[in-house]
Write a structure and sequence with these properties.
about 150 residues
């Protein structure tokens, strides 16, 4: 068990085409002993549809961002919220791994693709198994990181 706390970020209100991949990423992270703080990103029903107010979502997510050790973001499809979460985490000096489907890489915001900070990695992947394999070597507490 790594005990490393992961903030898994993915589009919620916009294009959720990567949702199946997000669900597999969540499962793989948990199987490897990571504590995923944001399991709700893989839910089929959104928090606001369950009755949470936007303010409650914001306050919860800021609390979880503060608690997390690393942010893993699925960025294949645009999301203002995910962009905010990435910026928030980076400005706190915490590591961010952004995952983008290889065929969607050129559609990812130039602002995200252009980040050169040491605590940011943009990873292209063809399928979720490749994404998981790459994460295995990059996440804190993984065998290759020790």
């Amino acid at each position: 068990m790594t005990g490393v706390k992961v903030y898994l970020a993915a589009p919620m209100r916009g294009d959720r085409s990567a949702l199946a991949n997000v669900k597999k990423l969540l499962q793989a992270l948990e199987e490897r002993g990571y504590v995923v703080l944001t399991k709700h990103v893989a839910d089929d029903v959104l928090d606001v549809e369950k009755g949470m107010t936007p303010r409650e979502v914001f306050e919860r997510d800021i609390r979880l961002l503060e608690e997390a050790d690393v942010l893993v973001a699925e960025v294949s499809y645009p999301s203002l919220g995910v962009g905010f979460e990435i910026a928030y985490f980076l400005l706190r000096g915490k590591p961010v791994i952004a995952l983008a489907l290889r065929e969607r890489l050129e559609s990812v915001s130039a602002m995200i693709r252009g980040i050169t900070w040491e605590n940011f990695r943009l990873v292209a992947y063809s399928d979720v198994d490749e994404a998981i394999e790459k994460l295995d070597s990059m996440l804190p507490g993984s065998v290759d990181m020790q």
